[in-house]
Amino acid sequence: MTQKPLPNRAEKELAELAEYAAVDPTGFRRALSSFATGVAVVTTLDSSGAKVGITINSFSSVSLDPPLVLWSIAEDSMSYGVFTAAEHFAVHVLSRQQQEFSSRFAQSACDKFGGLDCNAGIGGVPILGDFAACFECSTEHVYEGGDHKIIVGRVHRFEDRASDPLVLYRSRFLTEQEAI
Question: Structure pTM?
Fold first, then answer.
């Protein structure tokens, strides 16, 4: 009688990983929505100098020294190529009253900057007139992250207006009473 050899450690790890590969994307997204998060708009310029902006909720601090932040962009985003190639960008943390900005910059194929007064930030990047906080950055790193790219920026200038942030929880915006 021939004994079957025991699986080695690598084979065991691969078998365990195969179990995790079967994660239900809808359930996974729903579970992630249990983490309350702020909402931000990231802006930059494309290669022709046109203003580009996108709504995100994947923003995080990375380091205080040097001052680094990160955010991610989906590979199927219409502005993916612009942001992954950008030398500079600005992250605008939205205030509680800016749900309209979140919706405006979440849309594709519209004039997102129409009627908005913007200043030019570092590298000419558009800086929105209203926000809770703004971080002007140069791109430090762009990393693979599944179906996203993770963009790490070095903060060169920031402004904190001490406003209450717009908060997203369970795929909806929290009201002032809920956020307290």
Answer: 0.85
